[in-house]
Specification:
The complex is a heterodimer of chains A (174) and B (110).
Chain A (H helix, E strand, L loop, with lengths): L1 H14 L13 H25 L3 H28 L7 H18 L3 H30 L3 H28 L1
Chain B lengths: L4 H14 L13 E7 L2 E3 L2 E5 L3 E6 L5 E4 L4 E4 L4 E5 L4 E6 L7 E7 L1
Parallel strand pairs in B: 1-4, 3-9
Antiparallel strand pairs in B: 1-2, 4-7, 5-6, 8-9
The chains are: A mainly alpha (174), B mainly beta (110).
């Protein structure tokens, strides 16, 4: 069942253009921690790009929130893996997430002004939606350690908030 | 609600902060009511209070939160607390301006 949901989640990531990982194995806690940390890092990088490019106050405020919140979760994740003595493991999903994010970063770099703001906000909706799907269907059910599972659940709630906030931003920018 | 020593100290600090707010009648010192910000929510989400009471928001999350409405904007850092004094009756609906899905309400009676 877990194997099937992992495949489904990877497929969902692929459909969203965010990752095309090799399905077939369910992720272990070290890999799950790495995927979650990578997802946060990607969103921080996207927010920093937005802060460097945008002049829109709402976009700035949203991007600042992304940096602040994801940094808080990632700091907590780092402290947790250190406490548990787990070394986050690089894996195909993390690598695919990073590769897709690099491409998206390059695409957004070509835009400016309102076109950039709208594209950034729309990508934030899509990205959070996709990561939420993976958290719900694969990462949270797959996590064996209770503290990691709890942190992922907090992450999911936060990502859902961000998805909603990003949707409001898209509407406001129209 | 039970508070740890640390929590009690933080609430006391919030009360001091709240003292900066406009003063309610001196013969009604009011109570201190604590609303916890945790797991991206307010607890209790609906608070019943009286005019002159102080509300202290205690942020137990790892995220910056606020209690924001037309009348006040209380920003609370992780691990900190901050409060306001309730000066008039009515229903106050507030949100976290950073996480708009967080919604709270205070029903203030005379």
């Amino acid at each position: 069942m877990l194997k099937r949901t992992f495949v489904a989640a990877v497929a969902a990531l692929a459909v969203a253009g965010l990752a095309v990982a090799q399905p077939g194995a369910k992720p272990n806690d070290a890999q799950i921690a790495h995927i979650a940390y990578t997802a946060g890092t990607i969103d921080i990088a996207a927010a920093k790009q937005a802060l460097a490019k945008t002049k829109n106050a709402q976009v700035r405020s949203f991007a600042e929130e992304m940096v602040r919140d994801h940094t808080a979760v990632n700091d907590k994740a780092l402290a947790l893996v250190k406490k548990l003595g787990v070394k986050p493991e690089d894996n195909p999903t993390s690598r695919s997430l990073s590769a897709a994010a690099k491409q998206k970063h390059a695409d957004l770099a070509k835009l400016s002004g309102k076109a950039f703001d709208v594209a950034y906000a729309q990508n934030e909706v899509a990205y959070h939606k996709t990561v939420n799907g993976a958290l719900e269907s694969t990462l949270i059910p797959g996590a064996q350690n209770a503290e990691l599972k709890s942190l992922l659940q907090t992450g999911l709630k936060l990502f859902q908030e961000h998805e909603q906030h990003a949707e409001h931003l898209v509407t406001a920018l129209k | 609600m039970r508070l740890s020593w640390r929590g009690a100290l933080m609430v006391a600090a919030a009360v001091l902060c709240a003292a900066a707010a406009p003063q309610a009648p001196k013969d009604k010192p009011g109570r201190i009511l604590v609303v916890t910000m945790a797991n991206l929510g307010y607890a209790p989400a609906i608070l019943t209070a009286r005019v002159g009471d102080r509300v202290a928001w205690l942020n137990q999350d790892i995220f910056l939160h606020s209690a924001t409405t037309g009348d006040f904007d209380v920003v609370v850092k992780p691990g900190a607390s901050h409060g306001v004094r309730l000066l008039k009756p009515g229903t106050i609906n507030y949100v976290c301006r950073y996480h708009p899905g967080m919604k709270g309400q205070i029903v203030v009676t005379k």
